[in-house]
Design goal:
- By secondary structure, the protein is an alpha/beta fold.
- The protein has two domains: 198 residues, Alpha-Beta Barrel (TIM Barrel); 128 residues, Beta Barrel (Lyase, Ornithine Decarboxylase, Chain A, domain 1).
- Helix content is 29%, strand content 24%.
- The chain has eleven helices and 18 strands.
- Helix 5 runs parallel beside helix 6.
């Protein structure tokens, strides 16, 4: 749901609250879409970052298309919004299969994910009892980051056979999670090539057994922006790219002025003896994610801008308790004079985690003039899907 908020600016709502710059988000979306068009591969956006129907519309301006979700609550909400081609990219808990069946019976093509014989058997049994095939993707592990079976694991063929015999085998899915630690363009290209090779090899191994493999799915934001050859791949999944964040900027996948998500906070105190400025936005507003801690530049809990989005040099959110943020200056920078009541925006380490702390987004548009206002106009308020 989109709520008109044209008379508000970022100085009006109580802080803290999340802000989306629609101009940057749209630009980010077009960048990846154009790149994958050149590579000849379909994009299946992952909506887990924003969990918002209006943000998904930015990612697919032509109308509802194929998407990826991380929860069944997302699948149900997006099905209500007209989306009928959905991949649920988290290993399936058999207890959730009745919800999967309910979506399938609504006419939604909902693919589930698995990496074990037990899950495959549960899907086959449930599909047989319901008289409804349950499309399933086998998760393949390409880099040891998370779940999945390796390409040479004997269980790959066994899982494939169980699904094939039940009429449920849809394909394979790979996620190069270690690409989030690939700090050079060369490393990201290698991660993308490895991701592709693992997915294609797994698909070919299943096809060699006589199984039909329709979907060969790869994806992460770093590899989607680094891949040079996606031969054999049918689709790419990515989600963070619509907002980006400091981790992605630290890797070099984007620039700071691509970051489309921020959190507005207010200065509520000063501790000059410690070199601190206190705000009303703590880890409940930003999350506890410290994803830049292992990068070349540790950005604390986030970088700080003024309310218009201009970076304040050297100012970082260095500490956080539940509802308090601590701002301090890096070495070589003076602590700015920010009176109590000053509104600031904090750029997050991890957009997915920070967005999850909020019920929705106040939308601004840095591509439109603000007619002399002291703060950007709030163009809309967009709701966000929660729960599992």
């Amino acid at each position: 749901m989109t709520t008109s908020a044209a008379l508000l600016t970022l100085n009006d709502p109580d802080t803290p609250f999340a802000v989306v710059d629609v101009h940057r988000a749209r630009r980010n979306a077009r960048r990846l879409e154009s790149r994958l068009d050149r590579l000849g591969v379909r994009l299946r956006p992952h909506v887990k970052t924003a969990k918002s129907l209006p943000v998904a519309a930015l990612m697919q301006p032509g109308g509802p298309g194929p998407i990826t979700v991380s929860t069944l609550a997302e699948a149900e909400a997006f099905a209500d919004g007209g989306y009928t081609d959905i991949t649920y990219a988290v290993g399936i808990d058999p207890h959730k299969l009745p919800r999967v069946l309910a979506l399938l019976r609504r006419g939604v093509t909902l693919r589930v994910l698995l990496d074990s014989p037990e899950q495959a058997a549960a899907i086959a049994r449930t599909a047989h009892e319901a008289g409804t095939p349950i499309p399933a993707l086998i998760e393949v592990d390409c880099d040891g980051h998370r779940g999945g079976v390796t390409v040479d694991d004997p269980s790959l063929v066994g899982i494939g056979r169980t699904l094939h015999d039940a009429g449920c085998l849809s394909g394979v899915l790979v996620h190069a999670g270690e690409s989030y630690f690939a700090t050079t363009p060369s490393d990201r290209r290698k991660a993308a090539a490895n991701e592709r090779d693992a997915a294609v090899a797994a698909a070919e191994r299943l096809r060699a057994e006589g199984f039909h493999v329709d979907t060969v799915s790869v994806g992460s934001t770093p590899t989607a922006h680094a891949a040079e050859d996606l031969t054999g791949v049918t689709e790419v999944r990515a989600g963070n790219y619509v907002f980006f964040d400091l981790v992605m900027a630290g890797l070099g996948v984007c620039r700071l002025d691509d970051l489309a998500l921020s959190v507005v906070v207010t200065v509520i105190g000063h501790r000059p003896e410690h070199g601190w400025i206190l705000t009303d936005g703590g880890w409940m507003a930003m999350s506890r994610d410290r994803g830049t801690a292992d990068q070349a530049q540790d950005q604390g809990y986030g970088l700080v801008t003024d309310v218009r989005g201009n970076l304040l040099p050297g100012l970082v959110m260095s500490g956080a308790s539940q509802e308090h943020g601590i701002l301090s200056a890096r070495d070589g920078h003076a602590l700015p004079d920010l009176p109590i009541g000053t509104r600031l925006r904090v750029l997050p380490n991890h957009a997915c985690a920070t967005a999850a702390q909020h019920r929705g987004y106040h939308v601004v548009d840095s591509g439109e003039p603000d007619a002399g206002r002291s703060a950007p106009a709030v163009r809309a308020v967009w709701e966000r899907v929660g729960g599992w």
